[in-house]
Specification:
single chain; 276 residues; outer membrane lipoprotein receptor (LolB), chain A; 7 helices
Length: 276
Amino acid sequence: MHKSPKVQSADSASRGPSIRTRLLIGACAAALAVPLSAQTVPVPKSAPKGRAGSQLSAETQRGPSSTGTTPQAPPDPVIPDPRRNLPSSIFTTFDANQKAQAARVSAYLSSLQTLVGNFVQVGPDGSKTTGDFYIQKPGKVRFEYDPPTPIEIIADGSSLAVRDRNLATQDIYPLSQTPLRFLLSDRIDLMKDTNVVSVTADDVFVSVTIEEKQALVGTSRLMLMVGAKDGQLKQWTVTDPQGYDTTVAVYNLDTTKKVDPNLFKIDFTKYPTSPG
């Protein structure tokens, strides 16, 4: 089992939880990125939820899912075996079935324009967080974590902000350097547009693993898992260059909900740091 990172920079220590800690909370979005800037900002307003005291009642506010089925209970994310061996050669070959499975996942991701739902996230230390997410392609996403987690993650199409409401801070990242860009691309062919290193399928999931090597950051991986029967996104796992896994399982998916564009606006105004 992976251990949680303990290294903390002097800058992040002065602002509370380390950047690494906050990225583990938001690793689905920013684990591969290097901050462009960090700033103190007014505490942002959360999107209206109408939760009526229930932590996972966002579906009630959104209405029925796109399939018209009863809202689902939170799933138990499938945690990848940390000892798993994945090929890292860009010359890895795939058989016709594997290529067909990857093409199926590519077609599904390309077909999505909007996606709204709930998520359960499991960090490298086994901690669970929950919340709601909103996707508007291309390039826009918002993750809102349930209390007591004070994090919001917002991408506006080119930049990504990780906000901490308690600390009134946000870190800005280039979206192009985060694994979310694969989920948020308008259209994508995984076999052509990414370095796919593994394609597996069983009766439950089709899994496609993408590897990225960056000179300054190191090697990271993104494993996408869709349902073998319904072909819908079920979860993804980000493995950062240090080898730490963060898994996000999604459910109560709605592809018909119109999303307020204001949810994806990032406040880039520079604010002075409070004295003391």
